[in-house]
Design a protein that fits this description.
InterPro entries: AB_hydrolase_fold, CarbesteraseB, Neuroligin/BSAL. The protein has a single domain, classed as Alpha/Beta hydrolase fold, catalytic domain (Rossmann fold, 3-Layer(aba) Sandwich). Helices cover about 50% and strands about 5% of the residues. Helix 4 packs across helix 5 and helix 7 packs across helix 8.
């Protein structure tokens, strides 16, 4: 083996932001911006984009979704073609009697939107499990910090705290960008679990800290812990650390 150990710091392939949700949409933005038709066949579109100067591509006015990324890893069926065709195709054939790769054939019926989304979801889960299986060949150290979602807040939020309505707005955006169903129930659960109900008055600083903890747990800590749990199931050396040291000039007291 080229190396024997791996360190994951404040990130995991199981995190909700690890995959780009709508890569084709952002690819279309870039294509339009540099005058490459997004309707071109994939190979021709790729050639057109490769012929464009990097500065033109980088100047595309793309706004990343809240709590997500516009560019990054995605399940596209091209880079991960063999696994996508063999594994997810078999699942698709069991679900509706046809092979998923056959959808590219003009005479084959196109899948419904529900089936397409279901297969994409299954594919993402299987790919992540495959990544964990590969990662289990190595010893692993996973680290998180005390305030993982610190940069969600602006300078005024950090200094003065936030009110309950701002907390609701932030958490609503997170839930909407991460989940598809039962959004109100999920939001209510988050607020309930990350509110200190023993405090008679909810101070803006406390609301800020509770919101910070909720987002840190959801986006970084929980996926990291899940990664270590899956990794340790294969009886490898798995370690988890929490870095909470703050200097005397830090924003949080020691």
């Amino acid at each position: 083996l080229l190396f024997h150990r791996a360190i994951l710091m404040s990130g995991s392939a199981l995190a909700p932001w690890s995959l780009v949700g709508e890569p084709a949409k952002f690819a279309a933005y870039v294509s339009h911006h540099v005058n490459c038709s997004p309707d071109l066949p994939h190979q021709m579109l790729l050639k057109c984009l490769r012929d464009k100067p990097l500065s033109d591509i980088m100047s595309t006015p793309v706004r990343a979704p809240d709590f997500g990324n516009a560019f990054g890893p995605s399940v596209d069926g091209v880079v991960i073609g063999k696994f996508y065709t063999c594994t997810v195709g078999k699942i698709g054939s069991q679900m509706d009697g046809s092979h998923y790769s056959d959808y590219s054939v003009p005479s084959a019926p196109k899948p419904s939107a529900h089936l397409h989304n279901t297969l994409n979801t299954i594919n993402a889960i299987l790919l992540r499990k495959l990544a964990i299986n590969k990662l289990s060949k190595y010893d692993m150290l996973v680290g998180v910090t005390r305030a993982e979602a610190y940069f969600v807040f602006n300078s005024e939020d950090v200094q003065y705290g936030i009110e309950a309505d701002r907390r609701s707005k932030i958490l609503k955006n997170y839930v909407k960008s991460t989940y598809s169903y039962h959004l109100n129930e999920i939001l209510a659960t988050i607020v309930n679990e990350y509110t200190d109900w023993e405090r008679p008055i909810q101070h803006p600083i406390n609301i800020r800290d509770e919101t910070l903890e909720a987002l840190s747990d959801a986006r970084i800590v929980a996926p990291a812990v899940q990664t270590v749990d899956l990794h340790s199931a294969d009886h490898r050396n798995s370690f988890l650390y929490v870095f909470d040291y703050q200097t005397k000039f830090g924003d949080f007291p020691q």
